[in-house]
Each structure stands twice: as structure tokens, then as C-alpha cells.
């Protein structure tokens, strides 16, 4: 018997003129819906958040939600028919669903482009301002900086090169605030930018760093560089002073690291300790809420974001602006298709024009990279009912109340200098967008989420607003507000007032749920590599490397006494180490993965079978373009999943990303990788940080209990898989001996991989002693697992050291030899890196960081490197910088990756 449901019990119509309704729970095929004076039957099972027609929609007619178009019917769509497009069908077919989907789409993603009618434009009046004021307890700064809702000491890595330094320094100082009640914490702000040759986002990066410094929540800030990067402290200071940033009004210091890693950590600790009494002397005082500047974000959005949570933020923003405060709407590509609504009320035509210029610039920049700004929705968005960018944008735009006008349209990170409602240019990538709002001066973030995004910023409190009661109950330990109450009948005015009061309490010092969880991440709008479309066709159709080893000279000099290595063998895997690996499938799962491995390692779990647990936190998997960049990501992740040093591996998804667990399973199946031996967990679907942590730890415990003991085996050079990198000039003797080392290993049947960007490949002393051909090309792609032993060159789309090492380690090498000429560099999370040098001058500053100084007869250097490698591979010696914590991990986006 068919189930009969009243429409109001099972669906919502955002506005009366819509012809498509949103299911508020899963509705099975055959369900009879009583709607107004008619009834109709659902032709397919409609997922929660997905849409079905409530009126007949003719071919070519627009589908409407919020009375705005989000597509055009391809065929006659009857009332009760599941409306679905081709992209969502493809995304859902990757997942394991228990019901049948339509075989073909019935609508296409198509809307008419918006054209600003300047001739008939009429400026909108501002909403009436309140005559009275309200206060919160905040930290008053100098007038141009505003008032802080928090009081932090911020350790800021000027580029990615010093990211591991500020993270390690913050970790060493965590106990220092216990006796300073007015200091909220000492936090690192590490990011991925500025670590390569002069980036295209340099102006944006400098503006962001200057804004980070003077954010009102900063009590003191330490900026750290090496002084020779493409972006330096001197550049940040010059940028800030030339543009009137009041950096002298915040306690700060620019530091360039010159000595060893440990020595510089000791100096950094001493400096921060000197600041503590001064920062603690800053106290909260009653301040007008006109000083509140809130950033509005939505992430892990669903079909209800635009129905409940985003309108709630629109209510709060309108209220704050009427008190003289400021609110910032962002995520440029997530407003494409919503222009008629966004520009329905604007302060002046210049602001409307600037908004459209920023949107068009965003579209053009993405087109240079072979993608479309309209490709923003993630797999999680589509799964929860946001079929395309138009639906996502219409819902996202609801963070602006219908009564609110747009006052300003600004660049990413541009300072907010007055009250009002702002639009700030940014990608839809949540963390990249939030960083721009923090740089602009936001002292609070309001973040709506349908799937249950857990992200927070280190020194600006985030209030998380979830769209449905069911999701709030699942993630109650990670969310602040249940906007799902609106779907159940609670008036928006009542909810808005409650959230406004909560905002004032949190601004006054009450900790948000995210702050209590200790979860926070930073990501600045990442560099893009193309400045036009001139190279696009060449890059899109570049031939893939063959994977075949490169022929080299076979005149290796036999060793007088061969070196043997003790490895372990387990199942069909032979390696120098056994680790438990957690691979986050996106940026937002990274810190949670790190928290879990830290807890596992802290109690010695896995021993003696495993040497430890490792998490590969990174910045990708969500809010980035697909195509080549997504393929590169998947290939590199599979390289780590299949790495010979990995005994047990679990994929940890956030839950709303493009590259979720099901996506990764599919990629492994396509590439012939057994996905069944892996573990899988989801922060959102498994109930939040605490519950997913328990699940992951239980999975590893089960695997360890069932594991068979490893067998010790002895191998020669044929068992070695070595990567070689270089930084700085190549001394002839060093190049010649690295060539000799390569020939010895490859000649014995082992693997040597050198990245394409290594100076070794251009050094005559290396080339002449190694290659048989005058021209050599990469044999494997970035992050590609080596399947055929021999000598390989790996493609490297950037000159970034950490991105290079990240790709190199994914090839399956078990040790990296780094020839350093400038300074020691960050090491890898689990593939050991030997920092070696032939330059005595290196020891004057970095003696504590160098693992091997090549000395004596150069003919012995290859043996010296092998002997030190043996100590590392057999765990009798640990590389120094790894022990000290100078560790980093960063995936490249390739030539065509760009933030969406």
C-alpha cells in the first residue's frame, strides 16, 4: 500500500512561486504527496534535501527555487517527478545507494547571464539605524584596529618555509598561559603560500599577512621568515607601512631565522615569554557592539542552508548593521546565479559594478586553468541536494537578509573601515575565504553548515550553525546553534534574537564549541599558476609519462664489501619500517587525523608491531578545481596508501568534500588497488570529532590484534628505494658521487627517483656520469607510485621544496637524501630525510641540523651516504630535523589547480 503524506510534513517550498520542493527527509518511490488541492506520486526515491516537482514543467521551462532559476527542463517534468541533473547522477553513482536512481537527467544547468541595468539603477536606502546601543566585553585596541573579542599571541609563518617552525614553537609554549588569565592562547598561523618563485598571488598574500597582524584579536604577533624567500618580512613590513596599516599599534617583531632549528626555537620561546606580562595586562572593558565585525561563511552546505541557517545569519547581520557593526559576505563563485538577489539592494552603482567585476574576474581566472567557476559544488554538496552552483549560490546569498543592502564590494583581505554590509572577493573554499575575512578585520566568524563542517580559525571565534535538527543531534559536540528548529516551526525572529544574544556572550569571552574542541586551521587563498589561457591546450593535452625507467650508464664500480640491510616482510610487503597511516581525504579532516595519531602515539599503541602512527594533513580535497588537479591529488593519495612502509591505513573523510571516501574507493578500484584492506571513517557521518576518534582507534586496535608477526629479512642494494633532492649549487664532487650512488643502486636492481626540478639534473657532474642520452624527460608523474625498478625522474610542477618532497615520498621511496647548499629544509612526516652537505660553511650555522658532512676522499662519499642510510633504515640513527619537529607536508595543485 502506498504511503500518503501531507506536503507540509515532508517537504518545503522556499518561496510560493517555486515549481520545485525540497524533501526534508528521504521519501520512497511511490509515496503519495497531498499538495494544495492535488495529489501526485513520487516516481523515484527522493533523497533528503533533493527536489521534486510540484507543478508541471514543460521542456525548456526554467526550474525555480526562491523564485530564481537553477536550470532548464530537458523534457516534460510532471508533479512528483524527481528533478535531477547529469552531474548529480554521476556523483551519486559513485556512492553505494540502496535504491534506484533515474537513468537519465531531466534538467540541464542553465540560467540567463545577469546584466546590470545601470540606466535604471536606483541606490537603495540603508535600513534605519538603532538610536540606542548595546555593549560587549572586549579588548580595546588603537582606534584603527578596533576592539578584540579575544587576546592571542600569534606566531605567523611569513611563508610556508617557516610554517613548521611556528607550529613547533607554539607546541612548546602551550603551558605558558596557565598563569595569565587575560591571554586566550599562543597559536600558530602556518600556511602554504610564498614558498616558491615569485607567486601570482603575492599582492593578495602581503595584504593578508598585514591584515593578520593588526586583527583586533591579536595581542602580540611574531612574524618569522628565513629572509631569502620570494616573500619576506621586509616585504610585509613595507607593504603595511606604505598602505597605512597600524602595525606599530600592535606588539610585534619580525624575525629571520639564521641559526639551527633548535637554537631558533629557544630564541623564539624567550621572546614570547617576555611578551606575556604585557599582553596579559590588556583587559576586557565594555564596548559598543558597533565594533563587532562578523564574517559570514557556509561550508558543507545542503539544501536547507538557504532555508534555515543562512537566513538566520541574514537576520543577525541585519540586526548588527543597524547597531553600527559590520558583516562580510564572501565566496565569490558561490554567488554566481544569485546576482539578481544580491544586487536587489545596493548602496550605489559603483558597488554593484565592482561586485560584477570581481565575479567576472573570478570566472576568467578559472577559465585560464581549464575549469569553470560554476564547478564549485562538492560531492557532499550534491549528495545533500545542491545540484549545481546556481542552487548553491541562491542558498548562500540568503546570508544577506532581503532588507539588507550591499554597502561595499572589496578585494580579498581588504580592511573593513566602517560599519555596513560588505561583499569580499574570495574563493568558496571555506578556510581560504575565512582567512581573507580575518585579514579584513573580522573579530568573529558565523559559519553555517548542512553536513556539519567542523572548521574553526585559531584566533577568531567561530559560531557553527547547523541546518537541521537531525544533523545537530548527530554533531552536538561540534555545533553551537540548531537552525533546524526553524524547519520545525520556531519563528525566525525568536531564533535570530537568541543567536544574537549568544554572539554577544561569545564576543565577551564565552568559548564557542569549536574553541572548546581545540580545533583550528589556517589556509590563505592559494597561488594560481596561469595568467592567461596561452598554455591551456598544451597543458590539457600533455602526454603522460610512460612509467618506464630511464636508461643510465651501467659502469658502476662494485663495492669492495657489499652493504646489507635488515628489513621486515609482512604478507607481500617488504620494507624498512611499519607504520599506521591516517590519510585525510581533505583539508578539514587533517587536524582531526593529527589529534588521533598524537593520542595513539602518546600511549604507545601499536608497539612493537608498528613504529608509530602518522597523519598526512594537507590543504586539498575540497574547494579546488577538478580535472588534472583532482587526478593529481588522487594519484598522490594512492601512492601513500600503497607505500611499502604503510602496514595499516585508514581514510578519514570530513564528509562534505569532493574527494570523500567513496570517491577514493572508486579511484582505487580504477587503479587496481585493493580498497577492502583499508579502514574508513567520517567525521560528519560518524558523529563528530570525539566519536570518529573512538572509531578510528578501535579500527587500528582490531587490525593490530589480528596482525601476524613480521619476518626479518636481509637485502642488498636491490632492496633500496631512494629519493634524491638538492637545494643550492652542486659541488662537482658531490654531483659525481651521487651519480655513482645512483648507478650502484639501480645496477643492483633498486630504485632511485630524482624530482624534475632538482639542480642535480642540470649539474654537469651528475649528468655526464649518469645519462646515456643528451635529453631526458620525466618517467613518472608527480606522486605516482613506481611500478618498475630503475632510475626515474618525477614531474614537478613547482619549485616548492615541501611540495616536491611530498610527491617524491608518494612514489614509494623509503629514504630521501637531501643535498643542501643553502640551508636545511623541512622533512617528511614518515619517509626519513638525510640532510647532507659537502660545504663546511654549512656547519657554522647548522651543525645541529646536518646529518652527514661529506669529507675526505670524494671517492668514499657514496659509501658514506650508504652507511648513514643503513643506520636510518635500520633505526639506529634518526635524522636530526625530524627529531626536532621540522616536518611539513604539502600537495601541489599542478599547473591547472585553482581554488573554487
UniProtKB/TrEMBL annotation:
Residue stretches making up the D-galactarate/Altronate dehydratase second domain: 138-280, 567-698
GO molecular function annotation: hydrolase activity
| Domain D-galactarate/Altronate dehydratase C-terminal residues, every copy | 290-528, 774-854
Which UniProt keywords are present, listed alphabetically?
A: Hydrolase, Lyase
Source organism superkingdom: Bacteria
Q: Which family does it belong to?
A: Belongs to the UxaA family.
The protein's name is: UxaA family hydrolase
Amino acid at each position: 500500500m502506498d504511503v500518503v503524506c501531507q506536503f507540509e510534513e515532508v517537504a518545503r517550498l522556499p518561496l510560493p512561486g517555486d515549481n520545485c520542493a525540497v524533501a526534508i527527509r528521504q521519501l520512497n518511490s511511490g509515496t503519495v504527496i497531498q499538495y494544495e488541492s492535488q495529489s501526485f506520486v513520487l516516481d523515484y526515491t527522493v533523497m533528503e534535501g533533493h527536489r521534486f516537482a510540484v507543478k508541471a514543467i514543460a521542456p525548456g521551462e526554467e526550474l525555480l527555487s526562491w523564485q530564481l532559476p537553477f536550470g532548464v527542463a530537458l523534457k516534460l517534468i510532471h508533479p512528483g517527478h524527481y528533478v535531477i541533473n547529469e552531474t548529480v547522477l554521476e556523483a551519486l553513482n559513485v556512492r553505494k545507494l540502496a535504491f534506484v536512481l533515474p537513468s537519465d537527467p531531466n534538467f540541464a544547468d542553465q540560467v540567463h547571464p545577469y546584466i546590470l541595468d545601470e540606466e535604471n539603477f536606483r541606490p537603495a536606502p540603508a535600513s534605519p539605524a538603532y538610536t540606542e546601543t548595546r555593549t560587549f566585553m572586549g579588548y580595546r585596541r588603537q582606534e584603527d584596529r578596533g576592539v578584540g573579542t579575544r587576546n592571542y599571541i600569534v606566531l605567523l609563518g611569513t611563508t610556508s618555509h617557516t610554517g613548521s617552525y611556528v607550529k613547533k614553537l607554539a607546541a612548546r609554549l602551550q603551558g605558558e598561559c596557565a598563569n595569565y588569565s587575560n591571554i586566550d592562547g599562543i597559536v600558530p598561523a602556518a600556511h602554504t603560500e610564498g614558498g616558491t618563485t615569485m607567486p601570482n598571488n603575492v599582492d593578495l598574500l602581503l595584504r593578508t599577512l598585514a591584515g593578520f597582524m593588526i586583527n583586533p584579536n591579536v595581542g602580540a604577533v611574531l612574524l618569522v621568515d628565513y629572509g631569502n624567500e620570494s616573500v619576506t618580512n621586509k616585504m610585509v613590513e613595507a607593504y603595511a607601512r606604505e598602505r597605512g596599516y597600524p602595525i606599530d599599534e600592535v606588539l610585534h617583531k619580525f624575525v629571520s631565522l639564521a641559526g639551527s632549528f633548535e637554537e631558533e626555537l629557544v630564541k623564539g620561546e624567550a621572546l614570547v615569554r617576555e611578551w606575556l606580562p604585557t599582553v596579559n595586562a590588556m583587559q576586557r572593558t565594555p564596548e559598543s557592539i558597533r565594533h563587532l565585525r562578523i564574517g559570514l561563511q557556509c561550508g558543507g552546505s545542503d539544501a536547507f542552508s538557504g532555508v534555515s541557517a543562512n537566513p538566520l545569519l541574514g537576520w543577525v547581520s541585519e540586526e548588527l548593521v543597524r547597531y553600527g557593526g559590520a558583516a562580510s559576505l564572501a565566496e565569490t563563485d558561490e554567488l554566481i546565479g544569485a546576482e539578481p538577489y544580491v544586487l536587489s539592494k545596493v548602496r550605489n552603482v559603483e558597488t554593484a559594478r565592482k561586485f560584477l567585476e570581481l565575479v567576472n574576474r573570478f570566472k576568467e581566472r578559472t577559465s585560464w586553468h581549464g575549469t569553470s567557476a560554476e564547478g564549485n559544488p562538492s560531492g557532499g554538496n550534491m549528495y545533500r541536494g545542491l545540484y549545481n552552483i546556481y542552487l548553491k549560490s541562491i542558498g548562500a546569498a540568503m546570508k544577506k537578509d532581503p532588507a539588507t543592502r550591499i554597502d561595499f564590494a572589496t578585494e580579498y583581505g581588504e580592511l573593513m573601515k566602517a560599519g555596513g554590509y560588505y561583499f569580499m572577493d574570495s574563493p568558496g573554499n571555506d578556510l581560504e575565504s575565512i582567512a581573507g575575512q580575518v585579514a579584513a578585520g573580522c573579530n568573529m566568524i558565523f559559519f553555517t553548515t548542512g553536513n556539519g563542517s567542523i572548521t574553526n580559525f585559531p584566533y577568531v571565534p567561530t559560531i557553527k550553525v547547523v541546518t537541521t535538527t537531525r544533523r545537530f543531534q548527530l554533531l552536538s559536540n561540534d555545533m553551537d546553534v540548531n537552525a533546524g528548529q526553524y524547519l520545525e516551526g520556531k519563528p525566525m525572529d525568536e531564533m535570530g534574537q537568541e543567536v544574537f544574544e549568544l554572539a554577544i556572550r561569545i564576543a565577551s569571552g564565552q568559548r564557542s564549541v569549536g574553541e572548546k574542541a581545540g580545533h583550528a586551521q589556517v589556509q590563505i587563498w592559494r597561488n594560481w599558476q596561469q595568467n592567461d589561457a596561452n598554455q591551456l591546450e598544451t597543458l590539457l593535452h600533455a602526454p603522460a609519462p610512460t612509467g618506464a625507467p630511464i636508461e643510465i650508464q651501467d659502469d658502476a664500480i662494485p663495492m669492495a664489501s657489499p652493504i646489507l640491510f635488515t628489513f621486515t616482510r609482512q604478507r607481500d610487503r617488504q620494507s624498512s619500517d611499519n607504520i599506521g597511516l591516517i590519510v585525510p581525504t581533505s583539508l578539514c579532516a587533517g587536524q582531526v587525523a593529527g589529534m588521533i595519531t598524537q593520542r595513539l602515539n602518546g600511549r604507545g599503541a601499536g608497539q612493537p608491531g608498528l613504529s608509530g602512527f602518522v597523519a598526512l594533513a594537507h590543504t586539498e580535497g575540497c574547494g579546488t578545481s577538478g580535472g588534472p588537479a583532482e587526478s593529481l591529488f588522487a594519484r598522490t593519495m594512492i601512492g601513500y596508501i600503497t607505500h611499502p612502509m604503510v602496514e595499516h591505513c585508514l581514510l578519514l573523510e570530513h564528509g562534505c568534500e569532493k574527494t570523500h571516501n567513496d570517491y577514493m574507493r572508486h579511484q582505487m578500484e580504477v587503479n587496481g588497488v585493493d580498497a577492502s584492506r583499508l579502514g574508513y571513517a567520517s567525521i560528519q557521518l560518524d558523529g563528530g570529532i570525539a566519536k570518529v576518534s573512538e572509531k578510528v582507534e578501535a579500527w587500528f586496535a582490531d587490525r593490530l590484534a589480528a596482525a601476524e608477526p613480521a619476518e626479518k629479512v636481509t637485502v642488498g642494494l636491490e632492496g633500496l628505494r631512494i629519493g634524491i633532492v638538492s637545494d643550492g649549487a652542486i659541488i662537482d664532487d658531490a654531483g659525481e658521487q651521487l651519480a655513482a650512488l645512483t648507478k650502484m643502486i639501480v645496477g643492483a636492481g633498486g630504485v632511485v627517483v630524482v624530482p624534475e626540478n632538482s639542480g642535480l639534473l642540470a649539474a654537469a657532474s651528475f649528468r655526464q656520469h649518469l645519462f646515456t642520452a643528451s635529453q631526458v624527460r620525466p618517467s613518472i608523474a608527480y606522486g605516482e607510485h613506481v611500478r618498475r625498478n630503475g632510475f626515474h625522474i618525477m614531474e614537478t610542477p613547482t619549485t616548492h621544496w615541501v611540495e616536491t618532497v611530498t610527491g617524491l615520498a608518494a612514489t614509494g621511496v623509503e629514504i630521501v637524501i637531501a643535498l643542501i647548499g643553502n640551508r636545511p629544509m623541512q622533512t617528511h612526516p614518515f619517509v626519513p630525510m638525510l640532510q647532507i652537505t659537502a660545504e663546511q660553511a654549512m656547519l657554522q650555522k647548522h651543525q645541529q641540523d646536518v646529518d652527514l658532512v661529506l669529507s675526505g676522499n670524494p671517492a668514499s662519499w657514496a659509501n658514506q651516504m650508504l652507511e648513514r642510510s643503513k643506520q636510518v633504515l635500520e633505526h639506529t640513527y634518526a635524522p636530526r630535523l625530524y627529531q626536532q619537529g621540522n616536518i611539513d607536508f604539502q600537495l601541489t595543485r599542478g599547473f591547472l589547480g585553482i581554488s573554487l
